[in-house]
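testing teh design pipeline on a random one, pls ignore if ur not involved
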């Protein structure tokens, strides 16, 4: 064992012990975060407008600060972007993470000197948790690749801005710089396809031990590697044994990845966003990711089924239940207050608090009152694929409300790597699995309001072509698993 690997084990144990202290005292930890946030933001414009000086309890906070999304917070954010100080958080942010919103155009999410370290520490601690639990640390001596956005930053009124993954690239610790790939020059390439081709050239002769990125874009990298070398990824990189991912559920990709790699590898799931780093997988044995309660974020939760009612109840960490679908609400040390990021989560454990990402509150199908969410369609597809050679590259689901003949239905647009022998039989398998996942969907099928779902094949690379057509190929961009309309799937109908 190398000195670096030995040191990593010692550090992993130290971080594990620190983590246990706050994880075993979740309510007290969140109360401390809450008080600290209110105290520090009292003199900001937002704090004055919402009477932070009178807030002495969470109940006070609920009365003074309503739930809001980016558009509702935008007047404050616009002032921050103009260069004004002490608006949402003391002083000015050190970065803006620029994201593309569906209704807001470009969104500028502030990152402050208080919030930025937690983004870096959380990613580091996820790897250290893995080392502590498994005892595996030799990978720290191998090469590591992080498929991410360009680290080239712009500047707006004295504040640097860029994609979150590009900003994070500036914080890679010195002890990893020699191991890290791709090169800075390659990482700066903006066009995703050109970038992936350059990464293939740089890495194909290297000893890659850790590979990280959103599964759909890592898949593209693997496919190009395999095509060039004409052998599985596991033979190209004999010491590749750890895949780190975030952004989407890995399960729909797992069979395809194992086929591309030629063997199974360990995986660590992360839950990062521009608004904060919320959770990471702290155990290879337990389901879900450890919710980070000590990272400058105060969490609230609203039941998804109640979210669109007039005055939904807001829950704190001590009030949540297992298996319930919650909309995640944040108040952060970057100046986001009772902020709805749009993600929905479910708790898989309450000791400690672990979560899975179940979908997006805006990404669902409820054209007929069924309220199908992302987690349900992913689980149904996974069940239908079990025990078969079927492999799926990508998929999305949309309602067909006005078919030319017969009852309406859910239409699944699937790009197959290996197609089922009988497409209708496979569609029925998915449908049966969906009926088990969602009782409302089951009632609609049983009551002949809907017919069983229909699978429509998408040509190879069809989803990549779609993402390219809307300017969202690569980086942190993700395809919605499902929609309540047919805007996405119109692209495939018009082909």
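output:
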């Amino acid at each position: 064992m190398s000195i670096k690997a030995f040191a990593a084990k010692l550090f992993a144990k130290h971080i594990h012990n620190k983590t246990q202290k706050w994880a075993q005292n979740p309510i007290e930890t969140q109360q401390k975060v809450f008080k600290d946030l209110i105290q520090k933001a009292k003199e900001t414009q937002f704090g004055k407008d919402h009477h932070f000086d009178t807030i002495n309890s969470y109940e006070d906070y609920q009365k003074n600060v309503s739930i809001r999304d980016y558009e509702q917070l935008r007047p404050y954010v616009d002032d921050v972007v103009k260069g004004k100080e002490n608006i949402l958080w003391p002083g000015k942010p050190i970065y803006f993470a620029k994201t593309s919103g569906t209704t807001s155009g470009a969104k500028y999410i502030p990152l402050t000197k208080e919030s930025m370290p937690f983004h870096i520490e959380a990613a580091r601690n996820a790897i250290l948790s893995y080392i502590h639990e498994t005892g595996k640390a030799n990978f720290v001596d191998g090469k590591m690749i992080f498929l991410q956005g360009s680290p080239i930053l712009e500047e707006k009124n004295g504040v640097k801005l860029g994609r979150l993954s590009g900003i994070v690239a500036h914080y890679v610790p010195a002890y990893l710089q020699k191991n890290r790939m791709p090169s800075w020059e390659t990482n700066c390439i903006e066009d995703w396809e050109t970038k992936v081709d350059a990464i293939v050239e740089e890495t194909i002769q290297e000893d890659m031990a850790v590979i990280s990125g959103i599964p759909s874009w890592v898949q593209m990298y693997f496919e190009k590697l395999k095509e060039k070398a004409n052998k599985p990824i596991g033979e190209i990189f004999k010491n590749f044994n750890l895949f780190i991912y975030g952004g989407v559920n890995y399960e729909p990709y797992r069979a395809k990845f194992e086929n591309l790699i030629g063997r199974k590898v360990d995986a660590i799931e992360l839950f990062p966003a521009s608004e904060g780093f919320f959770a990471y997988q702290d155990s290879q044995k337990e389901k879900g990711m450890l919710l980070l309660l000590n990272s400058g974020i105060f969490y609230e939760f609203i039941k998804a089924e109640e979210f669109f009612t007039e005055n939904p109840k807001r829950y704190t960490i001590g009030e949540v239940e297992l298996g319930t679908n919650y909309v995640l609400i944040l108040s952060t040390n970057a100046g986001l207050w009772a902020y709805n990021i749009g993600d929905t989560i479910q708790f898989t454990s309450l000791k400690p608090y672990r979560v899975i990402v179940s979908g997006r509150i805006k990404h669902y199908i409820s054209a007929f009152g069924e309220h199908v969410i992302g987690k349900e369609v992913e689980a149904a597809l996974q069940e239908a694929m079990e025990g078969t050679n079927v492999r799926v590259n990508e998929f999305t689901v949309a309602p067909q409300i006005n078919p030319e003949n017969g009852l309406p239905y859910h239409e699944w647009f699937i790009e197959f790597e290996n197609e089922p022998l009988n497409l209708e039989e496979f569609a029925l398998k998915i449908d049966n699995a969906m009926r088990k996942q969602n009782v409302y969907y089951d009632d609609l099928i049983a009551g002949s309001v809907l017919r069983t779902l229909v699978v429509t094949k998408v040509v190879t690379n069809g989803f990549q072509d779609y993402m390219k057509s809307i300017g969202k190929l690569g980086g942190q961009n993700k395809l919605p698993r499902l929609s309540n309309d047919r805007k996405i799937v119109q692209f495939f109908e018009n082909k």
